[in-house]
Specification:
With about 650 residues, the protein is α/β, with parallel strands linked by helices. Strands 10, 11, 12, 13, 14, 15, 16, 17, 18 and 19 form a 10-stranded mixed β-sheet that branches. It is globular and about 100 Å long. The termini are far apart. It binds ligand C2E and calcium ion (2 copies). One calcium ion (CA) binds near residues 431, 490, 522 and 552.
Amino acid sequence: MEELLRPHDFKICLNMAAIVLGVITLIIHSSEEDYYGRQRRIFGMLIFYVLFANIVGGLHNLWIASDWAKTLISYNFNCFLAVLEKAFMYLISLVSMCYLMTLFRIEVDKWWKAVIIFIPSTCSIISTFSALFTRNVFYFDAKGDMHFTSYFSGAVNISTAIYLAFAAYLIYRFYKTVSSEKAIVLITYYAMMAAGIPLKIFFCSYAAFEFSTSLALLLCVYTFQNPSEFIERTSGTGTRNALNFAVYTNLLQKKRFTVFGINIDRLPEIIGSESVEASSNLLGQMATYLKRIYPDASLFYPEEGMFILLLEDINPEDEVIAGLAEQIRRRFKDPWSLKDDDIRFTESPFAIGFPDEVGDMEKYTEVRDEMKKMLIRQNREVLRVSDLNLKYAEHDKKIDGIVRRAVENGLLEVYYQPIYSPLTGKFDTCEALVRLRDHQFGFISPAIFIPIAERNGTVLGIDRFVLSSVCEMLAATNVLDLGIKYVEVNLSVVDCIQTNLADSVLSTLKKYRIGTDKINFEITETWEKEITSAVDDNVKKLTKAGIAFSMDDFGSGYSNVSRIATVPVNLFKLDKSIVQAAFESEVSYMVMLNMIKLIKSLGKEIVAEGVETGEQAKQLIRLGCDHIQGFFYARPMPEAQFIEFLQEHNFS
Ligand code: C2E
Ligand code: CA
Ligand code: CA
């Protein structure tokens, strides 16, 4: 042990110091909450590699310096430790590079870029291990010390130098996007690595290099890896943590304050598609403006596309808030500059009053999420907590108006989604899906308007329109000759409880001279819960007339398994949530598998919905699904395109 006390044996001292630093860094790192995702994982890897290199390097140095260590470790194992240390050093250069790239959010999007990044360290590592078999790289002397051939150390130093040059370039290019303190840490980090090279050559030891890396990592843990770090990198405003901290401390101190948010439409998409430089410049302009209009407020950028001003001693109803909103609205009428272009955004403001309206963080998150949902619908006045419920009702009313107008003015259209049959290799059925394109609001998804239309009854008109359109299409086109056996038409629960449903359906079919076997009605699983005598009558009458029923969205609700055997349907449509989940987890896969088995055991047919990839299609066909519906084969399309589709696919 006396070797450790000999101060001149600096290599061992450096190793020991570096190990201590490494352990401290590791402890700090692991005690932090997971906030940075990938960046954090890479950083963790880096600490681990440095620590490991130090430990094996330290053992190797100890072996050389001490007789005592020689009794514990064999000569060969000592050589192996030295080789391992070298290999890890080259890994460290590589991982440092990857870390730097995640800091600047640089994606390696092409495989060849990844190869270029990996080459220098991979070559070094391979040649290091080749030393176990040849003396051309380096060799060990009788004392167990390592000696490089000049050719090898030259090559390895070049590879490290390549990384350093690349790092220098990245830092030079992007240092403006990080705070000055972070920039200094980065420069220090790489300067220390660079300083390690001459030391390495001069002393033939890696200890100094490893020590400096450990020290640099410790600096990083307090800057880049510090989740309590409160300044948002790109905009120079407060982070989500900073906001949470401010809200929390203000609540603790029982202060009255308002969180005034500005949600900016499209901003996340723009930021996501631009370079770090361009986006931080854009956010910078907005931040500067917002800071200026109310200098007493603190400004945060807690999540993509949303700025928050925290105003103390202000209520959401105060004049100030409305005034600020007005001022911001005017500013947003003018463009912002993005690189050399001008770009316009729409903003929607909201205000939450603490502690009267919202008294804790949980409630805040909940209210903010609700507000965000409503803001998507482009609210231009300041949205307040008291508006939440009211606005929802208004939203429904608005959609209701749009749907009524669409039904009256013939703005509805029917799209057809071809459904593939693995047995014949053709598309022999399809689903009719309604589409609504409002002059003012554009396309509105049926997933949004159908539930509202069901609540107020307009769905009846919609479904009647869809059925007539389908019949008209069947009568006027040659889709039946093109291989379509029947069309799936959605029927809402509301339709089923109408006493005259069966009559109205049958008279429509008669009007267009369409056989009852050409229509399959899809009803959802929830239908069985609402079974009333009217539903029963309708289903019975229609079934008797020859119309078949399919059970839609099977598996999405709570199915009463014992009822399944008795429901009068011959086709089950596996809900897309079941299908898609099955390809994400083992358990969900088993769930789907058992559903398929159950349906098959009842002798019924299966449609798998929401099939988006070839892999999914292949597997579902293998499991025996009779029909496959999904974007992988075809999206819902207008009538004319549907006919072209059939011509192309069913007759080739
Ligand atoms: P649904 O009955 O489950 O219809 C299937 C939905 O899945 C359609 O959405 C379709 O576009 C979509 N889809 C098809 N393949 C894929 C895929 O591979 N991936 C994904 N993610 N989705 C896929 P759409 O057209 O938006 O309709 C939504 C819902 O609105 C329908 O769900 C249905 O419940 C209702 N709906 C649509 N048209 C009508 C109608 O004419 N009458 C009634 N009552 N409801 C309708
Ligand atoms: Ca359906
Ligand atoms: Ca469905």
